[in-house]
Amino acid sequence: MKKAQVITRRDFIRGTAGMLVTAAFSSSTVLGASTEERPRVVLIRHPDAVASDGSVSSDVIRSMLDEAVKTLLGEKEPTQAWQKLFKKSDVVGIKSNSWNRLPTPKELEDAIHRRLVGIGIPQEKIAIDDRGVLNNPIFTKSTALVNTRPVRTHHWSGVGTCIKNYIMFVPDPSAYHPEACSDLAKIWSLPIVKGKTRLNVLCALTPQFYGRGASFFDKRYVWPYKGLIVGIDPVAVDAVGAELLKKKRIAFFGADRELDVPPIHIAVADKKYHLGVSDLSRIELVKLGWKDDTLV
What we know:
- The chain is α/β, with parallel strands linked by helices.
- It has one domain (22-289): Rossmann fold.
- 30% of the residues lie in helices and 17% in strands.
- The protein contains eight helices and eight strands.
- The protein has helices at residues 9-26, 58-73, 78-85, 106-118, 137-140, 178-181, 234-253, 265-271, and strands at residues 40-45, 92-95, 126-129, 144-154, 158-160, 197-208, 227-231, 284-289.
- α1 runs parallel beside α8.
- The radius of gyration is 19 Å and the shape is globular.
């Protein structure tokens, strides 16, 4: 008798990844923002951003963020750059990430908050939150959002980046786990977030470039890259972040290593949901600061 073939979840994802992306190319669904012709993404690094003990320099992070946003918007002063993104009348939610193994650094949250207050937005109209956004009145009434989180590998989506960070804006996040979280960009069409995201800051201070299994964390696969990846287009920012992790895996292992699932949601966000640009050749990547082992 012929032995029955067992198809695992990993086999299924491998087999369907190409089909999902191909289907995305032919879809006419438009739920996100229109893609820029050539979105700008700023990668900035500083050798003193993270000390040998893992502590983060507030002053260096403020300077890095200022330089990145100025360059992104083509302004000479940070105040003018932030004023291009936000109005004094805005109610602003800073969507952070609180995963205990690799959270958004408080120093980065504070640097963003400081600039918002500095352009005249009252503190009582600004909130920083992650898992409680659906019950936070600032987020439910927000007119603008800043999206910030660390870049790392992720069991369900391949990589955890800016697109994935909005999964807490739905009451049942696990509903978006099937098929490598391919439909994460659909969340960006919900009224609570649609059209509100003014800035995406992907924290690459100490990224995790490899992992297998849910909630995986291993310091062997975390390195002091000491960077920030900043842009208005979340898909372009995520594409750069995913490429950085891939290049580090190649440098570390000698070849790329398979993750639990491929990060197909980034291409799907582009081709199906038109949230932004995933093609690295169409992204204007501006590199500032420390150049050692930039990788991308």
